[in-house]
Amino acid sequence: MISFTVDTTQLEKTVLKVKGKQAKWSKEYLPRLAALIAADAKYEVQVEAPVRSGVLQRGISTQIKLGATSATINGYSSAPYTRFVIEGTRPHIIRAVNGRVLHWQSGGEDRFAAYVHHPGTKPNDFVERGLRKIEPLVEEHMRLVGEELLDFNV
Prior knowledge:
Layout: E1 2-7, H1 9-18, H2 22-48, H3 55-58, E2 60-66, E3 70-77, H4 82-87, E4 92-95, E5 102-106, E6 109-113, E7 115-118, H5 126-150
Helix pairs in contact: 1-5, 2-5
Protein name: HK97 gp10 family phage protein
């Protein structure tokens, strides 16, 4: 699971001082702000995800948990190997399961082995890269929502 929190406490305090619109904030604006940020986060993480079969990209999803003054957006990946992509792997041996043999093609020829020495993989923190790309968008969404809420007349 990937998780980050957008704390809107300062924005809310400003809004409450000026308008006293706490119900509007927590019921309308905070959920909308969280939805915008979650959509941006999902998109940018998918863009940064490595594409081989597309399973990793397609398996990324988000879930929003709303608090009184903040929203937590959790990211998920249904690809079972996500952790290995993000953290990388050490060199290791891959053995055939149940006494069978490993099979692959190399140079147009069939290759067989009972085990192979895998060299490991480098870490690829595509999640971190994607989330860094949305930082300016989060600030812009918060600014726009704050301005709209402060200008709101009822």
